[in-house]
Task: structure prediction
Amino acid sequence: MEWRRQVYVYADYRLSWLRLKRLGLKPGPHSPQIGWSADGFPVYALLGYSEPKKAESAIVELKSSFRLKDGNRPAGDAGPGGKYDGTFVQDYEFVNGVGDLDECNGRRFSFDTSPAIGHW
Result:
């Protein structure tokens, strides 16, 4: 008997490919689980299904929907000033649909599993 589960996962973009290679991640297969978030959801690395509800779809590098803002930060009492360059979290804005992930850098996907395997 197969069970269909819907899961919400986060992708961790702080890990470099070099570090991931040391952990044994290779381009091609779906990323393994690399940890747990504080709210209990599993954390995967960069690779996932191109179609989140189809485990037979192609494996792709998932992209964040955050992008660097254009222009300059507010200066003076309103902010540090200078060009938006990624130094601060506030240098980025979420643009729905630009990437594969939502505003939490996560996504919902479904997968098949058997209770005997023990994937939760």
About this structure: The mean pLDDT is 76. Residues 38 and 118 are 21 Å apart (CA to CA). The chain has one domain: 3-112. The two ends are 15 Å apart (CA to CA).
